[in-house]
Design brief:
The protein is an alpha+beta fold and 229 residues long. Helix content is 28%, strand content 24%. A hairpin with a 2-residue loop joins β6 and β7. The chain is elongated, with a radius of gyration of 24 Å.
């Protein structure tokens, strides 16, 4: 009887070990696939502020794809909505390397922003208060975008308060025209007057782009409509 019980105990221990080993393998595979997908293919993001209203609202969920530029060769275009890491002058914090970009649930430092591409490399930008954004002398039409109440004519006009409340003026009092440098973009929120964007801190380099928002898959208003029905 004792031998029988010992044999059964050994078999159970073997089953437990096998179960734990298989569970560990599965966990490693799931984590690896998650890191791969998040870092190179696509990820979900939520809208944390009203800077893109009325086109994107707080707590909307968007799908951010990362393949069209890096793999499919589609260049970033004017009008695209990008998720990106703003320059250090805006955040005042160092980058955390690849942690937030690849690993889910790890706080990002700096936090990622979401804005619309207004200027591509070589574009000349000018903003007239009460009128709108001009790109290469032509008024830019963005449906739903709020008309700005500020003026930008030269680099020295780019200034404002960072997310930490610090006044910044990245190009000092330069009277050079605002021309987007190579491998960079001029980004604005659609809610022009309530957005920390390129009119405050300047250009975004291409290597700080996380991906392109390609789909809104959840809006809070859908839930409100459902609850009312």
């Amino acid at each position: 009887m004792i031998k029988y019980l010992a044999k059964k105990w050994d078999e159970r221990k073997s089953d437990v070990k096998e179960f734990l080993a298989e569970s560990l393998k599965l966990a490693v595979i799931v984590v690896g696939m998650t890191v791969l997908v998040k870092g190179t293919i696509a990820e979900a993001r939520y809208i944390p502020s009203g800077s893109m209203e009325p086109n994107l609202n707080i707590e909307d969920r968007v799908l951010v794809e990362k393949l069209s530029s890096s793999v499919l060769g589609r260049p970033i275009q004017r009008g695209d909505i990008l998720v990106f890491y703003p320059p250090a002058i805006e955040t005042g914090v160092p980058d955390n390397g690849l942690l937030g970009k690849y690993i889910p649930f790890v706080p990002e430092s700096p936090p990622a922003f979401i804005k619309r591409v207004v200027g591509l490399p070589g574009d000349k930008i000018r903003i007239k208060s009460g009128v709108g954004v001009f790109v290469n002398g032509k008024l830019l039409e963005v449906p739903g975008a709020i008309t700005p109440d500020y003026e930008l004519s030269n680099l020295g006009d780019i200034r404002g308060y960072s997310m930490n409340g610090k006044f910044i003026r990245p190009y000092s009092d330069s009277d050079e025209p605002i021309v987007v440098p190579a491998n960079s973009f001029f980004m604005l929120g659609d809610n022009r007057n309530a957005s920390a964007d390129s009119h405050v801190w300047g250009f975004v380099k291409n290597d700080r782009v996380v991906g392109r928002a390609c789909l809104v898959f959840w809006k809070q208003e859908w839930l409100r409509v459902f609850l009312r029905s």
